[in-house]
Design brief:
The chain is about 30% helix and about 20% strand.
Length: about 300
């Protein structure tokens, strides 16, 4: 079992991004994903700078993957995706089918991001023919469904040709929209958003009328209100055939979270509790086949 550090989902200042990766260049993660996956207007870090950062992190022995934009709305957006897909050095995480096509046209391997909505082994087989070598399971699928998909993939003869990665920590990315909900909350037009996302380094919490943490608003992206935490299930994941657990960056205590995950999967500890390092409650309901906001590891 390996650990990956997903692409930063939030709008952080350029210096904060640089400092974050300086810290984690030597952290116990095996794979680091880089790039802007949420909003094309977020250009605090330019594409050329993401590529330069990838080259620096690769020197530390990490596998570096460049992640593409999930929702492209203009030719300029697609131009940025194209530049990443033609970077010439690094594996690419394709977040939409446009990026898949760009990688297939070059006959290059790629990672299929969770937003590709891969729900069965037939889709895996089709995408494998186009170059997919790793996929990230959609966050709403459960352990039993993943087990069935991987069993079917094995029967199709592609089980040992594709790695499986699971979003294991962080606010789960649930949906994307052409509207910017953060700008709307601040009574701003999307075209004049003034980058107010930067005021919410871990997203904008949105509670239900009953006061429950329901969603997290992150610009055009809607995330879970609670934080996915699958470390208590790591042995089951390993038995099913999961190769990589993905940890999504948060602004505080990320090194502590990574350290706890690494200690447990490397057999140095059995303590899976991380609540001291979270600003929201944990959840694992989707993985357990229950409502996503449930936490079965504690409640069950």
């Amino acid at each position: 079992m390996r650990l990956s550090l997903g692409a930063i989902q939030y709008l952080w200042p350029h210096q904060t991004v640089e400092e974050f990766y300086q810290i984690h260049a030597n952290s116990p993660v095996d794979v680091i994903y880089l790039g802007e996956t949420v909003c094309a207007k977020r250009r605090q870090v330019k594409i050329s700078e993401w590529i330069d950062l990838a080259k620096e992190l690769a020197k530390s022995g990490k596998q570096v993957v460049l992640s593409t934009l999930t929702l492209t709305e203009a030719r300029s957006d697609m131009a940025g995706v194209t530049r990443l897909c033609h970077n010439g050095d690094f594996l690419v995480e394709a977040s939409d089918m446009g990026a898949v096509q760009l990688m297939a046209d070059q006959s290059l391997p790629f990672v299929g991001g969770p937003s590709l909505n891969i729900y069965n082994a037939h889709t895996l087989k089709l995408l494998h023919k186009q170059g997919l070598t790793r996929w990230v399971m959609p966050v709403e699928l459960n352990a039993e469904t993943l087990k069935d998909i991987l069993a079917d993939a094995e029967a199709m003869g592609i089980g040992d040709k594709i790695e499986t990665e699971v979003f294991s920590f962080g606010h789960m990315p649930l949906a994307y929209s052409a509207r910017c909900f953060t700008a709307r909350f601040r009574h701003l037009a999307k075209d004049d958003c003034q980058f107010v996302c930067q005021d919410y380094p871990e997203g904008l919490a949105m509670d239900s009328q009953e006061g429950q943490a329901f969603f997290t608003i992150n610009g055009i992206q809607t995330q879970s209100g609670r934080i996915q935490h699958l470390l208590p299930h790591w042995q089951e994941m390993q038995q099913i055939g999961v190769d990589i657990m993905r940890l999504s960056p948060q602004p505080d205590h990320m090194a502590d979270v990574i350290g706890r995950y690494a200690q447990v999967i490397h057999g140095q500890s059995t303590e899976t509790d991380i609540k001291l390092w979270l600003n929201a409650s944990a959840c694992d309901g989707y993985w357990c086949g229950q409502p996503g906001m449930d936490y079965i590891a504690v409640d069950g």
